[in-house]
Amino acid sequence: MKAIVPYLNFDGQAEEAMQFYQSVLGGKFAGAGIIHMGDVPGMPDLSAEEQRRVMHVTLDLGNGLKLMASDILPSMGHQLTVGNHCYMLLSPDSREEADRIFQALAEGGEVEMPMQDQFWGDYFGSLKDKFGVGWMINYSQTAS
């Protein structure tokens, strides 16, 4: 296995969410960039709103790290249920970077556990961002 890549689904917010994540985490949109449903050949007739939804986007963060996303299509029976079954764990290189990322992701979201030193020796916090995605930020001073 070369990598595990988080793939996020949204209900019409994928483009906004991925641009937000790019502003927080950096990186570049890979390949053709943000591909919309209306750009896909052979798609059935979609409403103008569904044509603007994201079919696929990859945010390449470097060093083999990627974050991918798409939107659901309600007209095809897709339903999105935002839940607590999935968090994205980030391991920044410094406490300062951990705080910066945490604060940016928390804006408009809900802090579950503020960044603080933990009993296991790391600096950790968790939150749900404004899109309902769960994030864990864990800075460890020890190399793994």
Care to count the β-strands? 9
Report, as a whole number of angstroms, the end-to-end distance.
19 Å
Strand percentage lies at: 25-35%
Question: Please, what is the average pLDDT?
Answer: 92
Q: How large is the radius of gyration?
A: 17 Å
What characterizes the major β-sheet? 5 strands, mixed
CATH superfamily of the largest domain: 2,3-Dihydroxybiphenyl 1,2-Dioxygenase, domain 1
| Element order: H for helix, E for strand | EHEEHEEEHEEE
Give a short synopsis of this structure.
Helix content is 19%, strand content 33%.
Structural account:
- By secondary structure, this protein is an alpha+beta fold.
- The chain folds into 2 domains: 7-75, 2,3-Dihydroxybiphenyl 1,2-Dioxygenase, domain 1 (Roll); 87-139, 2,3-Dihydroxybiphenyl 1,2-Dioxygenase, domain 1, CATH 3.10.180.
- Helices cover 19% and strands 33% of the residues.
- It has helices at residues 14-25, 48-51, 95-106, and strands spanning 7-10, 28-29, 35-36, 54-62, 65-71, 87-90, 110-117, 123-128, 134-139.
- The protein is elongated and about 55 Å long.
- The chain starts with 6 loop residues before the first strand and ends in a 5-residue tail after the last strand.
Please tag this protein with its features:
single chain; 144 residues; alpha+beta; 2,3-Dihydroxybiphenyl 1,2-Dioxygenase, domain 1; 2 domains; five-stranded mixed sheet; four-stranded mixed sheet; 3 helices; elongated
Blueprint of the fold:
Blueprint: E1 7-10, H1 14-25, E2 28-29, E3 35-36, H2 48-51, E4 54-62, E5 65-71, E6 87-90, H3 95-106, E7 110-117, E8 123-128, E9 134-139
Parallel strand pairs: 1-5, 6-9
Antiparallel strand pairs: 2-4, 3-4, 4-5, 7-8, 8-9
